[in-house]
# Entry
Amino acid sequence: MKTAVQPHTGYWPYNDQTQMDRQIPRYPRSFTRVPAHPLTERPLTLTELTGPAGIENRLGVEALDLSHAAPEEPRALGQLILVSGRVMDEDGSPIAGAVIEIWQANSCGKYIHELDRFDAPLDPNFTGQGRLITDFEGRYQFLSVKPGAYPVIESGWWWRPPHIHFSIFGPSWMNRYVTQIFFPGEPLNQIDVLLNGVKDEEARQTLIFEAPPPEMGDVQRIPFHRDFVLRGKRATPELP
Ligand SMILES: [Fe+2]
# Structure
């Protein structure tokens, strides 16, 4: 959430142009998803700022593979991708032990969600949701399949380009960061009102995966890379 600079946290202010517009003309929900009145600052207590501790022990740090619904089940349909990156604070220091939650559509652009009205098929071998924890250098990695595009049906015109949703918790549950990351070279990226709600070109590019060349000898999966900066003037923009 965008807030005014909070003196007690003392982090660098960002330029509003590097974050998504609060109200987007052709996206009615943007008018209901942001506060209509100035925010009220409520100082956080020590518990809220530091807990919960030892989350990696409670959740377990296991390799995440979304390309199967379960380890022994068949592989999901679609192009296999290996997504990796780092989670950093404003000064580039790693955010270790951050809980990352991921959700995405299947290769046809369909979510497992009762409100998804797109008539594309579900894939019984794909759930599109998972959770992992960054390592001591703030790194994460998971296998998946490339999501498909899907229409925003009520809009009558708008197709969402392929993207993956990320939610990242910082040192406590009160530090939650949410965004979407897009794939390079997708024509629909040009018309997506959320992606283009970020006016600053350089900031917008940080919402698109980098596509490093595949490793020699690896013909199984296509690598994509995205680092996240959670706050400060280089913060990766948040998208709902
Ligand atoms: Fe989505």
